[in-house]
Amino acid sequence: MTTSRRDFLKTAGVAAGALSISTLPDWVSKVVAAEEAAANGVDKDALADVALSTARKLGVTYADIRINRYRIESISTREQQVQNVSRSQNFGFGVRVLYKGTWGFASSRDVTPENVRRITQQAVGIARANSVYQRKRISLVPVEKVVTSWKNAFQKDPFEVSIDDKIQFLLALNQSAMKTQGVSFVSSSMGFVNEQKFYASTDGSRIEQYIVRANPSFTVTAVNRSTGDFQTRSSLNGPQGMGYEYIEKHDWKREAQQAGEEAVMKLKAKPVEPGKYDLVLHPSHLWLTIHESVGHPTELDRALWMEANYAGTSFITPEKTGKLQFGSKLVNFIADRTQPAGLATVGYDDEGVPGQRWHLIKDGVFIDWQTTRDLAAMTGQKKSYGCNHADSWGSISFPRMPNVSLQPASSNTSLDDLIAGVEKGILIYGDGSYSIDQQRYNFQFGGQVFWEIKNGKRGEMLRDVAYQSRTTDFWNSLDALGGEATYELGGSFGDGKGEPGQSNAVSHGCPPARFRQTNVLNTGRTS
Amino acid sequence: MLLTEKDARTICDKLLNYVKADDASVGVTSENYGHLRFAANAYTTSGARENVSVGVTVWIDKKRGAASTNEIDDESLKATVALAEQLARISPVDREYMPTLPQQTYKPVNGYAEATSNISVTSRAKTINDVITACEKAKVVGAGFHQARGTASASATRNGNFFYERSSLVSLSTTARTPDGTSSGYFLRNHFDVAKLDTARVAHEAIRKALDARNPRVLEAGDYPAILEPQAVADLLSFFAFTFDARNAEEGRSPFSAPGGKTKLGQKIFDERIKVYSDPWHPDLPASRAAQGGLPAQKIHLVRNGVLENLVYSRFWAKQKGKEPTPGPVNNILESSQPPVALEDMIKSMDRGLLLGRFWYIRGVDPRVALQTGLTRDGIWYVEKGKIQYPVKNFRFNQSLIELLAPGNVDMIGKPERVGSSEGQGGNASLLPALKVKKFHFSSQSEAV
Known about the structure:
Helix content of chain B: 10-25%
Radius of gyration of chain A: 24 Å
CATH topology of the largest domain in chain A: PmbA/TldD fold
Strand content of chain A: 35-45%
Oligomer: heterodimer
CATH superfamily of the largest domain in chain B: PmbA/TldD superfamily
Number of domains of chain A: 2
Number of domains of chain B: 3
Number of helices of chain A: 12
CATH class of the largest domain in chain A: Alpha Beta
Distance between the termini of chain B: 42 Å
Low-confidence stretches of chain A: 1-24
Shape of chain A: globular
Mean pLDDT of chain B: 96
Number of strands of chain B: 23
Low-confidence stretches of chain B: none
CATH topology of the largest domain in chain B: PmbA/TldD fold
Radius of gyration of chain B: 24 Å
Number of helices of chain B: 10
Helix content of chain A: 10-25%
Shape of chain B: globular
Number of strands of chain A: 23
Largest sheet of chain B: 9 strands, mixed
């Protein structure tokens, strides 16, 4: 099966609602033509046959090949200047083999049958060299064979929206941010990623996927030159697994103006008095705390010390499954690779396992892990939850985080309701400085905007706020959640893990939540 | 196979021939990369990657566009140039445009070893077997990462500049943990030449630290005198030389900004023994021969005798301010103007304090004073009356880097070692010494191991 970009767009229905190929500007057609010229020489199924048959002949127990194209667009501006407009694309393949219970992987940008054969031999050669000294043989849980294609649910392909529109959008946003007297600088950017992925394995699966993600952001800076002080306020809305409709649906200009006003206010805001406070954390802030303190410690590879040399291990150990009171009874976390607009949403992971949805923490108790086929086999599980991912054709796939989200209350609780229940507290918007230890116990988070809460009402703005806590103390102190109407999706375009380091895009949804008696520092005093 | 100078020049020439724009800068980089990971005393993932990437930046009527690809057939190269030119046509004027450079003269740098670029997978497998065997003998659980990379890159401009260079890097890091998970040790080193990477030392030090860190005691958080081993210094300061940007300082958003729209240039803001500089020809830390925009790199001093001697001017900002653009930094070296003090002598001289081996998850908190937060990891020891007394449980710190190196806080400075940051996985290298400081601020305890 040979699939050109044009064919794939047609079969996946990507062009619906956007420009058709025949009406695209000339330069787009040139690039598409160049991509097609490359793709036309590539019969992915035939290449997969070469890789998989070569690997089989060399005695592997499993092999897969991924042939992927990645397109990235990036536009960045400051004030009324465009700093960068760039597009990049890369194409290549990687072959992963399991030989005598030992992984081997090799990859190349040169996508020809001869090179696929050579690279497959190289992958087996690496696995064979290491297998001589292997102590613990790796095995995989089975997965059902599937032949299919999938695309994520976006409406408007950002690669088919004019660059000029995007530039004008960012410059208008900057103008809004600069409206407030006292704003000194603003920088803004838009990034878009398109992944066109092909996967084939010795299990018989052949899967094509087409994924688009959007990453808009901005930062406003206010400088007081007489005191040498400066403060920033970054956008509260993060990246999402959507197309250009995500840029159009949100009122970014209004938010940029508000950000300008708040950056200037921060210069004169009251420094926080260190101590214990009740915290009301907005979803634009809480997603990052979830990512670090819930997403990472529930990765099974960390618990099995597979990441001990870099990211670290986990305070949750396998024998705590079903026993650990991770949080209060209101705390329910769901891992979900099927969530609409989720950055880690996929049809299938990078070893042919379908996207799934499952509880990690139910009624406050830790009950399950994020798994891949080899991790599931190591721990006696019968199936994988499909968390295998590689960030490039040139990277070996390994366990990565699915979307992990805190479920809202079944009531209609609003943000104001949460604030009303606080005598002395702080309301935090936006993600700021973040740091957590290698077992995901001790953490410290800042934010973008901090408001004092006094006697159930929002008070004046505070500055220099960060809170420190221990993961289980923090989540057990949660005593109220917003309802479904308050639920928002945050996320990261570049969660780093592994050696060599790989990047993963992942979303975390949540309502605002209230935490009692958390330790707050004044970072301006380096306390 | 890395691109030869001839092959790289051919690709650059092709790209420039396709360019119709007023000005252009093109580049090509080829890479051989290989890695081997191990964990729980067993081999986990291992792989290789071959890639070539091409980048094109053009200016039409001072409007800028950029595109890149890894497909190097003629049609793809043409399409990439066409894309960059189209992006330039629809972009507003780049107010920071600087014409690309004409031919420059570069002094060669030797930071490439063929044996690193084409690493032997069988000898690498044996090296890691030796590390795991050492862990097994010591009854600890080993995990680690070996990587080797060779790159060949070339850059050319429409105004006639061209340069080509090769570099390589190999690193090994190892974490050893006691089977009960109560103690952990870590060590990392890298070099451009695989023959000069002491892998046995990496394994030995990680294991020694894990064994020496058993049965840690709890100490209260607070301010302590501290000795930072070179790894800990690298974790904090691996990009230090790259933070001296003049524009940020003059725009009032840097720790080197001063009230009234001024900068701290010329002020003694660091201990008077401290020297921070960049030197592309340092034999232990060879770096690129080309600095920003293709300027031939030169040795530059940023801090000397504790005085902020230079800020780094980009070509654009230098023109705005009537200065010369800074030909660097291209690497990061911190050393003392006085004879270095050995780590053992630092310990002997310590009345009471902590010995720190590594920091982790370091993030900026307040850029005004370069305040960083992070944690200690993989071994921390209490020192009293000149001797290591016992291991201690980990801490979170909140520490300003400016205050760390300020006059009055630095007690002793060791001999610089080639070391990379652990969060950077050894993929970068600096020459940094051990430091003994009078005060380091720990804000809370951390029970993580």
